[in-house]
Amino acid sequence: MSVARIGNCSGFYGDRLSAMREMLEGAPGESSLDYLTGDYLAELTMLILGKDQMKDPSLGYARTFVAQVADCLGLALERGVKLVANAGGLNPAGLAAKLTEVTATLGLEAKIAYVDGDNLAPRAAELGLGGALTANAYLGAFGIARALEEGADIVVTGRVTDASVVVGPAIAHHGWTRTSYDELAGAVVAGHVIECGTQATGGNFSGFLSLPHDATPLGFPLAEVAADGSFVVTKHAGTGGVVSVDTVTAQLVYEIQSTLYLGPDVTTDLATISLEDDGPDRVRVSGVRGTPPPEQLKVCVNELGGFRNQMEFVLTGLDIDAKADWLRTQLDARLAAQGQQGGAPASVTWSMGARPQADADTEEGASCLLRVTVKDPSADAVGKPFTAAAVELALASYPGFTLTAPPGRGSPYGIYRPAYVDRSAVTETVHLWDDRTIEIDGPTELATVTPGADAGAPVEPRLPGSDSPTSVHPLGTFVHARSGDKGGDANVGLWVGGPRDEKRAARIGWLLHLITPDAIRTLLPEAAELAVEVYPLPNLGGVNVLIRGLLGDGVAASTRFDPQAKAVGEWLRSRHVNIPEELL
Q1: Which residue from 141, 166, 310, 352 puts its CA 20 to 30 A from 446's CA?
Q2: 21-25: long-range contacts (C-beta < 8 A, 24 or more apart)?
Q3: What's the predicted TM-score (pTM) here?
Q4: What residues have CB less than 8 Å from 11, skipping those under 6 apart?
């Protein structure tokens, strides 16, 4: 059977609208795609969609997908490309109904199916999930596959795993079964690589200096998935960016945890992945091994945490620390006085940016920002009482007092937490265009690994030291990184790129020796009091680092400067370490 050509046209809700058409049109002379997929959901997105649905119960889905389908459905049908997306969010039935309206308006005929069963919010208390605004189990790919096998032209889902929108088409194309573990694991890796769109083709890549720096939009990726689960990552000819072993590795180490990647259909062993060049803008991925999935399903739970607000003060010139200290003393006292009257915020967090350079030749260069963030269960406490207390100091505090923006109202924030439920609590259902419904049976075998527990004990490799003299350089001299969030935890993947030669092998050995939990706490002082786990991935030339609790209650509640930890990897690369000169 031929390979399944599966493309991606969205890595998040808000990605490039024109990507669907770009991927469908392709390049002259290229084979057409078989399937075009889109990932529109993230933990934060579920909260955003939950707020949408509070205002209008008919919403709760990614509305940009509707616009893309309205623009491109005719082309997709003409070329026989099936569309698969998790854009249904909290309301896949509503999205399917809207797409049916769009199809009729266009005068086209399309078979539209949707998959649901993930929404557990109505039963949250019964399932021990608390007072959740949203609670969605991560479903797998077999519902998507069944819809495609029944002849669907478009399949939309609620909360499936990000990779499932790719795994489902591969199952349908190749006829895999529930126990095709290695094949399923290969497709999970394919889905993980292309799910974030242009992050596989040079976007957010620490080796960006090697890329063309022009205005050509980065091409979206596609995977050519073979019947044995191996695949080639590539992109349409003539599009921007590049597909290389390093750009693929960057995505492989993005937002994972241990070396075992637990999913609803299969447990994927990331330590078995093998990468090799397969020509210009082509990387072959093979050797992936899979085992039965875990007994429980992971659930994304979002709760309303309260309200938040912030103000930023500009500190300029001399005596920066003294200015900051006086302002903090003044504002903290005013907020404490409000507290005696029952009106102070429950939480006040201060942070200050880098100190300005001495003798700066611009005012901006002589300045830094001091930020105060407040949170409280009540919108009133973070509104006028807070902003007025700050603004009233404008003529009564440090010299040069100024704000970066006028005071504003507080806004609601959510708290994310993962939870787990027995599979018996979830009924995955496929709804077809002809009103038939099909319940999807679960796996026939389950693993004893408990989701959420460490899938393997973190290893701290100790390789033989070198007698070579060392010198101090940034870690990023030859180490790449990509980082992101996993709920309240930060994930940082580190690896050594470049030619597959003896020097790279020596650099990998040095990196595996260097990166331990204690080393991370030293290099990233914000993690000094946090649990840190390190998982070697020598097959990918590096390690994965998990920093527990760095993001508090998740991106929507975090008061960090970088609430999604997207730049933690670049911070780590900028830190100075002793590197053996023979490795330079």
Answers
A1: 166
A2: 21/68, 21/71, 21/72, 21/75, 22/217, 22/219, 22/220, 22/236, 22/239, 23/220, 23/222, 23/236, 24/72, 24/75, 24/76, 24/79, 24/81, 25/75
A3: 0.93
A4: 39, 195, 196, 197, 198, 199
Instruction: Calculate ∠ Cα 412-49-427, nearest 5°.
Output: 125
Structure tokens at 452: 């959420």
| Residue 249 · residue 540 · CB < 8 Å | yes
Strands 489-496 and 429-431, by their bridges, are unpaired
pLDDT band at 340 (very low <50, low <70, confident <90, very high): low
Q: What is the mean pLDDT of residues 250-257?
A: 92
218, β-bridge pairs: 240
Contact 257, 267 (CB under 8 A): no
CA distances to 247, 422, 504, 538, 576 from 495, in Å: 11, 36, 10, 9, 16
E strand or H helix at 350, and its extent?
strand 347-352
Selection from 566, 584, 353 nearest residue 472 by Cα: 584
Alpha carbon distance 426, 420 (integer Å): 11
pLDDT of residue 465: 52
Judged against a pLDDT cut of 80, whether residue 567 lies above it is answered with: yes
Q: Give the contacts of 321 (CB within 8 A, at least 6 positions apart).
A: 355
DSSP per position, 117-170 = --B-GGGTTTTT--S-SEEEE-B-SHHHHHHHHTT-SEEEESSB-TTHHHHHHH
- How many angstroms separate the CA atoms of 468 and 453, rounded? 40
CA distance 559 to 551: 8
Closest CA to 202 of 174, 221, 227: 221
Cβ neighbours of residue 138 closer than 8 Å, sequence gap 6 or more: 118, 159, 160, 161, 263, 264, 297, 298, 299, 300
Strands 82-85 and 154-157: parallel
Short-list 570, 576, 551, 577, CA closest to 494: 570
Give yes or no for a contact between 221 and 7, defined as CB atoms under 8 angstroms apart. yes
Alpha-carbon span 253 to 255, nearest angstrom: 7
Please determine, for residue 466, whether its predicted confidence score (pLDDT) is greater than 70: no
Q: What is the pLDDT of residues 71-83, one digit of tens each?
A: 999 999 999 999 9
Q: Is the dihedral of CA 540, 546, 551, 556 positive or negative?
A: positive
- Kindly report, residue by residue over 285-327, the tens digit of the pLDDT: 999 999 999 999 999 999 989 999 999 999 999 999 999 999 9
pLDDT in tens, 118-138: 999 999 999 999 889 999 999
- Comparing C-alpha atoms, which of 462, 576, 457 is closest to residue 509? 462
Q: Residue for token digits 């199809």?
A: 103
> Any bridge partners for residue 136, and if so which?
119, 300
pLDDT in tens, 40-53: 998 889 888 988 89
Q: What is the DSSP letter of 403?
A: B
